[in-house]
Automatic annotation (TrEMBL):
GO cellular component: cytosol
Protein's UniProt keywords contain Lipid biosynthesis: yes
SUPFAM superfamilies documented for this protein: GHMP Kinase, C-terminal domain, Ribosomal protein S5 domain 2-like
Protein's recorded name: Galactokinase
GO biological process: galactose metabolic process; positive regulation of transcription by galactose; sterol biosynthetic process
Originating organism: Penicillium malachiteum
Family per record: Belongs to the GHMP kinase family. GalK subfamily.
UniProt cross-references to NCBIfam families, sorted A to Z: gal_kin (TIGR00131)
The keyword S-adenosyl-L-methionine is annotated on this UniProt entry: no
GO terms, molecular function: ATP binding; galactokinase activity
Record domain GHMP kinase N-terminal: where: 141-225
UniProt-listed InterPro entries: Galactokinase, Galactokinase_CS, GalKase_N, GHMP_kinase_C_dom, GHMP_kinase_C_sf, GHMP_kinase_N_dom, Mevalonate/galactokinase, Ribosomal_Su5_D2-typ_SF
Domain Galactokinase N-terminal, residue spans: 42-89
Pfam families: GalKase_gal_bdg, GHMP_kinases_C, GHMP_kinases_N
Amino acid sequence: MSSPQELVPQTESIAEVYATDDVSANSVAPQHQQRFSGLISQFNKEYNHRPDFVARSPGRVNIIGEHIDYSLYDVLPTAVSVDVIMAVKIVPATSVTTIKIANVAPEKFPKREFSFPHDAEIEIDPKKHEWVNYFKAGLSGALKFLRKEKKGVIPASMEILVDGNVPPGGGISSSAAFVCASALAVMKANDHNVSKQDLLDLAVVSERAVGVYSGGMDQAASIFSKRGFLLYTQFYPTFKAQHVPIPKAADEITFLMAQSFVTSNKADTAPRHYNLRVAECTLAAVILAKNFGLTLPKDNSSLGYSLRNFQNELMTVEERLHDPLEYQIDSVIQAVQDLFTKTEGYTREEMAALLDITVPELESKFLSAFPVQAERFRLRQRALHCFKEARRVLDFKACLAKASELDTKRIHYLGQLLNESQASCRDDYECSAPEVDEICEIARKAGTWGSRLTGAGWGGCTVHMLPQGKVEAVTTALRDEYYLKHFPDITAEKLEQAMVISKPSNGSFVVYGA
Ligand code: NG1
Ligand code: MG
């Protein structure tokens, strides 16, 4: 028998641990103990007293299910051990609320202070790239929540010191770690014992305030993950998650993350990359629906109409009840192939005609919530990627669930799914980068079972599944054939950060008594 895949208790509060306990045994990885005590002593220097608590939220690695969370399909990420830790002192508010926020790396992230009237909205200018925007995003979401719970709430003033070691723009979601830690810190500072589900809901919406129409995968992984498990995350019809164990294998299964050091700054590139993909998937969904004479009910995806929603509406009640999801996905793949025959993509005029609306109507409905720049929308390729990737996630999870021990055949199958995901991201979704493809090639040749990009792509990070016994060979190959070749002057320190064995780690928690 396989080990059970546990349902995640969503209403459970965020864990609180005490610094006098062995923090490492609870959650902080031993190598980060030092960072943790460093944060406390630096806080002391900065503000002349100790903090009341430390809020923490980690980055994540997505094992499989790329760019399908915003189409409301299931994904399989987990938290990693790099994280954002935030020491906080609660200060009673005066006639206004004042936030003082500093970072342990002040050269890169200068100190900031701002005040606002107790009932004011927090203003964020997504065009101005400021590290505190991510804090403000969490603050704004948390305040909206608190005000709904309690009218006339007076938000506490806070003194904050932040230490984050998740590489930014690196595909392991430094942004979600930061936004989740910030929202958690504000909730705690205002004495609200937030549940994991509430923190997730408000963090997803918070992050959209920074200008990216993200799905909910990163925040879910950052908040809900459990050490040693992957987090099977479902978004449709509503959020649900399961802790999925990784079975034993004769040759221990290891996940390695390798940075490409090609950064794609989402705030700049979103109109041509990320947000454009969200728009393409949404348009594919509504055009498919129109073609089948279906009216889609609004769902909770960022633009309100997802491919998953279309799939659900296309199936009869009978089929929904009795057909396995995999089979249902086969029929929608067929529908995409039949309808979207223009491989070069669709213009706004062509899409408006398919929907029987005018171009200005199309733009105001689907292309105005956030900026999108494109002449053509490659609906066929994007929808095919989404549905096939969704099926790969189901196949991956089913394979993990089948046995408590994985034999060679199964392991190779899992690797193959990862490689197919990469090929689809490269060819159909066009979210890879030449450097990412190169890393995957080198790694596979040196002995990984499967290699792919993880996160939004267009650079960023890669993830590899490999036997423990091959770690040395793969990291050596990547060092010699990728890092030293592309970055001959790379420092030893940067090289060390480039490749990290990723151990599935715990999600958000708060530390008291530090
Ligand atoms: P990154 O760029 O790694 O944070 C983004 C989205 C996810 C998901 C992945 C692609 C944000 C905050 N996150 O991840 O929701 O869509 O891309 O699978 O934009
Ligand atoms: Mg991000």
